[in-house]
TrEMBL record, chains A, B, C, D:
Source organism per UniProt: Saccharomycopsis crataegensis
First and last residue of the signal peptide: none
UniProt similarity note: Belongs to the TfdA dioxygenase family.
Keyword Metal-binding: yes
Gene Ontology terms, MF aspect: 2-oxoglutarate-dependent dioxygenase activity; metal ion binding
Official protein name in the record: TauD/TfdA-like domain-containing protein
Gene3D superfamilies recorded: Clavaminate synthase-like
Pfam entry (one): TauD
InterPro entries assigned to the protein according to its UniProt record, in alphabetical order: AtsK-like, TauD-like_sf, TauD/TfdA-like
Length: 412, 412, 412, 412
């Protein structure tokens, strides 16, 4: 039990009665799973239309979304049990195509549509100025997939993006993840809501003292974890709420050759953000889904090696003692989080007020963090985004692959 | 969830049926607390008489203990719920007398009974050679209490100790702790069983790779935590199974004056070794009892300051951020565990085979650890002990008290 | 000795001869301090005019700087000995005026000159769009001083800044630091050269694997450490070389009240980046200048408390044991370096090519780091800057001062 | 520079004069290496005969040692320069014979001479009761060598040991190390003095607050590092001054198989305890001798793998980044220092007053630490020992060798 109680499960259990039993009744308890919503935003009621930030409401309604029954929409058929959680997509992403592999390496179709191709740092992050995502064709989307694979994260400002196009682009890049617990745009499962005011239950984010870290990779507990991921902010505070991204290619290149070789071929356990009841041990407390993935993976489009761990979800290296695993993972997390030359910090500010900003990244080769200086007394509570996540391949390590610096012929 | 599963709760829940309810039955589950014994050695069946190690059996039966119905005995009326756990002795140790305060500071009655008074290290540990605990009178016990308060731990070898005298000495020093879950000598609650073969369920201790630490202080979750504690080994392996003790006085003296002042007057949260169900959140997993005690305490008999923390049970410093607390507690644990000049390592070997060894220490001013090189392929499984714990005062910090080195006029 | 030798002193000692002495000559060695330039860029030869990056050359020559004898210029009268190093400005900043205290809190004169006042994150960093530093009057400079004191760092792009104005603004804010070892613009001591190609001796920066950290505060070893500091980049790579800044106000606010109180009133030792010979122990290796400053300081203009430590230069907390100091400083460094809501990352890109970017910050209330993804195979070697540092007050802690969040009435 | 100055070099440089030179004299300094004795106990004057502890004096004079010119004796021809330090035994131990390989595995000759063979813990440490080292023949010494190789450390109490026999036993086990700087018994270089009162310059050991660690392995900077090492205490305080030993076999067995495989075949850098001037960089400060040895070695007599690192002297793993090396070595040091089941704590107390205690261990497969609770206000200053170190083989790793637990068929 954490003494700060930050993760304590909600206390709303509905104790109905004690049942009868031969050996006496005093030890039998009837519990109701339904009322336990501490970890289940899926249970949360939607907000009325009027509570939706203006720019968000305008965008969604412009594209025909019906907000009259509130926003966002809750998923149906919530899984309570761990086995139900595992059963969600317990198989490879079907018919997966790595779009970047089909792309023109020079990306002429995509780049010719841009007013400017602006690298945001030397090794990670590119902004495409003057491109509307709504307008991209499949050839351009293939090139964008390759650009993302190379630059990890790509920014598009001043977007007029429909939720339908948001979903369609995602679907083109792979099966769109539909979360069993998290809310979505009404009628469009897969377009997830990222909205602090709602997700945190209305109030401003509590200011956090102490050393809090939020670096993570999305959905690493999936059989086929998140690949290309598209977050669209349509309601953007004037200041605050940047997102930082870190490159897994560059994190891998920070390691010595012997440490790289030690990690290659090893597997890590990765847990889910949400928790479920263990049907065989209901009283044991909620548990996350845990899946095993290679610690070093090769991106199918670039062929570059990437370090596939993150502080939020990676809980152990298979085969090591727990104390060894802890020391080595802590080092790998710090390499990811403290090497600023491997990172880019992206402001969501549009240059044209009222339009949205899309950031598209590949979760297989990165970590990110939402910098928590929004949704407070200064910035207010307006920040709202939708996310569409395309699931990628089943993570693999290709022993013949190279690190980014090796492949680019850079000094090591 | 720990990926090593070392603390995973037992999976023997008895799911009887689903009950009926207006809103549908699918979310209601009837669970039976009784069958959950993962954390409850109280549920464990006793062993037959023949399985008890020979020396132990001889001693217990010599003093009239009936082993015909097995050994050890389980407690009755097991508490399942956290509130029941808290309710066990939720009040100060009644009529507590600090025996050491009444003692002759020169301890003439006690020392004159000893063949030799042998200090085992400069600052902690004394062996009294040639003394039988069975023979000590109250005047001598008072002096022993003071000796323990000063030297932290005192050793008596070649003991012929009756379980009854074991209990009586304990009762003289304070209310004897009767654990609601842990087994005891048949007919004598309060004489706790410390027996790896039984407590670990029979097999040899699994060899542990990795960095395992076992330093702890007993029963710090009590309202009045453990004071004078008397462990008697009556079945002793020829080699292995030493116990190391570390002095809280000396640990405090290792801190700089400013850090001492920072810690004085602060409180820490201390959890129990056993866990219980939270009646208001049964599905939240088991939880320990947690009690708040001063981080620096003053021993009533010596008036010396002692550092009252231990890695196994101290989970936070009140008022600090969790990240701050973690860093400072980790340092304090290491000061306790790594400062060998603050420690003594005690072998239980008797010089006369067949007799037992008693070690008596004060848990208020110490940590200890059983060194896990017994109960394996080399040593066999014979180690058995009984423990009697006298609860002490409610821990307090006296702002006018001194550190041990200050009080003794030693260089700082 | 570090096995990586990264800081090993240069090996160019000129051993002339052995001298004569009564007790035999074999142990006497004559050494020449002059040739030891490992730590002394002051000894470095300047580059020819043609090696200076084009934009830098154009700017400097436009404003009358004579580059015909090379660039940059070396200081004269290099100090070799520690006592000489200490003697440089071994007194408070003379006639210091805290300009921000005289400013209009609303900063109307300054803001009305700006096309836009753009906060770069909620708590740190502001860009003034459309302002030329060359044009600011004293009233505006006073307001700028206050803005810097509040926002920690202020950005001006598209600047046409003369070196003379650069120096004059610095002088207005306090005595301009003239470094005894570091090179400067010819004829203008105090306008320091920040030029990786030159400072690192010409080649590209070596790519660094491993966990390298570069967060620091400038010139904390001074009697009156650096206050307002103005870095002007006139030759800017197309990508790379961002600088991140972290707020000491916000770092202090991340600490719990008890830890804040523990640190307030304490002092830390802060060392210089350069090293000198100890006249009383020449063979003992070079040593830095070390000065004692409060660990928590109060900024004179805002009255807010700030955490005054940095990983590069703060070597200990006075009064603590070394092991305690290490643990606590490590935590404070991480709070500064890992709390992204306390940081801003600034790109130096101008929007008008050929013009420079000025970033002005207050070293008393911040740390910064140059992100090392410039000066490599991709970016080339063109990055060049000049820095003018105004020394501030002698750091003090005002027991009646408040933290930033307290003063602003924000939730804690 | 450490702000605590604990290791600051002595400040007794003899600055004679400035010499003449064409380019001006101001930068030339004549320094006298001879007077720099901070790191050179070799320069220390001996004490008069009367200051030698009584039991030590009696023993040495009984065996013909002349103390009339003081005690101990200083070495001649002190090396000042690093190259001179490296030149001391810069070659394998000549004609080395691993005595344990020739021994009867049952050790019948040795054991039959003992009253009792008493293992002190399950995996490390044996006491041979009733054996006089003075009396052992070569067959018994061979068996003792094997016993040490298996049990790491062996204790002999109540010894009447002559310094000559002390040296002869050492010489039988390998070339006796003669330290170029450390003092020895007059006329007997190689019989080193371990005497806190003298080595620390007379006063009581300063009490140390803070987290101080002293675990180390002797002489790992040698081409052929220390093998069998024999410390004989002839003046023993009544209490205090225990020595703890930790097994490198057992430390290796604590690592997971993958981590073992990562470390096998790698090399570490090991520095000397003493420092020397770098002839090519005299002003760079003193430097230790550094030698490269396998991180995992195989003991030639047992064929068991051992972890060959220690906190005091191992400064890096070859091929890793410094930050990686630091994290992994810190873990390995903690495994050695915190795993109490891998350790034994040995009291030097004789059972017959006036006789000495010998402890013989193998430095290739162990670390040890003198517990610093002697030489203080309570114990006085009488502790004195002599040490004879036999250099072993050049450390090697045999890829076909086994860990101790593997070889013994124990559970893993």
């Amino acid at each position: 039990m954490s003494f700060t109680q930050v993760e304590q499960i909600s206390k709303t259990i509905d104790k109905i009665s004690l049942a009868n039993d031969n050996g006496g009744t005093e030890n039998k308890v009837l519990v109701d799973l339904k009322n336990i919503n501490g970890y289940n935003p899926g249970f949360q009621d939607s907000y009325p239309r009027e509570s939706v930030p203006e720019h968000t409401r305008n965008r969604l309604e412009k594209y025909g979304i019906d907000l009259s029954r509130g926003y966002p929409e809750r998923p149906e058929n919530i899984p309570y049990y761990l086995d139900e959680g595992y059963a969600v997509r317990n198989r490879p992403n079907p018919n997966y195509v790595e779009r970047g592999k089909n792309a023109d390496p020079e990306k002429k179709a995509l780049f010719s549509a841009a007013k400017e191709v602006k690298n945001l740092s030397t090794f990670i992050g590119t902004e495409l100025v003057g491109v509307q995502l709504n307008d991209l064709n499949e050839k351009q989307l293939d090139e964008l997939a390759l650009l993302i694979a190379e630059r990890v994260v790509v920014v598009f400002r001043n977007q007029d993006l429909s939720p339908q196009k948001h979903r369609d682009i995602g679907q083109y890049y792979g099966e769109v993840e539909v979360h069993p617990l998290v809310t979505h745009v009404p009628g469009l499962p897969g377009i997830t809501t990222v909205w602090a005011e709602f997700n945190r239950g209305g109030p401003l984010l509590k200011y956090k003292k102490g050393l809090h870290q939020g670096w993570h990779t999305d959905l690493v507990h999936e059989f086929s974890p998140a690949g290309i991921t598209h977050l669209h902010l349509d309601s953007i505070p004037v200041v605050g709420g940047d997102t930082s991204f870190a490159s897994g290619y560059a994190a891998f290149d920070k390691l010595s050759k012997p440490l790289q070789q030690f990690l290659e071929g090893k597997f890590a356990l990765n847990k889910s953000a949400h928790n479920y009841y263990n049907r065989d041990n209901i009283l044991g407390g909620v548990e996350p889904i845990v899946r095993k993935h290679p610690l070093v993976i090769t991106h199918p489009a670039t062929g570059w090696k990437s370090l596939f761990v993150n502080r939020a979800h990676t809980i152990g290296i298979v085969g090591l003692e727990e104390s060894e695993s802890k020391v080595i993972l802590e080092y790998l997390f710090d390499i990811y989080e403290k090497s600023l030359d491997n990172q880019v910090r992206i402001s969501w500010q549009p240059t044209t007020s009222g339009l949205g900003t899309s950031v598209i990244w590949d979760n297989r080769i990165s970590q990110h963090i939402a910098i928590p200086d929004y949704n407070d007394e200064i910035t207010g509570k307006i920040r709202h985004a939708n996310r569409v996540t395309s699931l990628g391949n089943v993570p693999e390590f290709d022993t013949n692959s190279k690190s980014q610096r090796e492949a680019l012929g850079l000094s090591i």
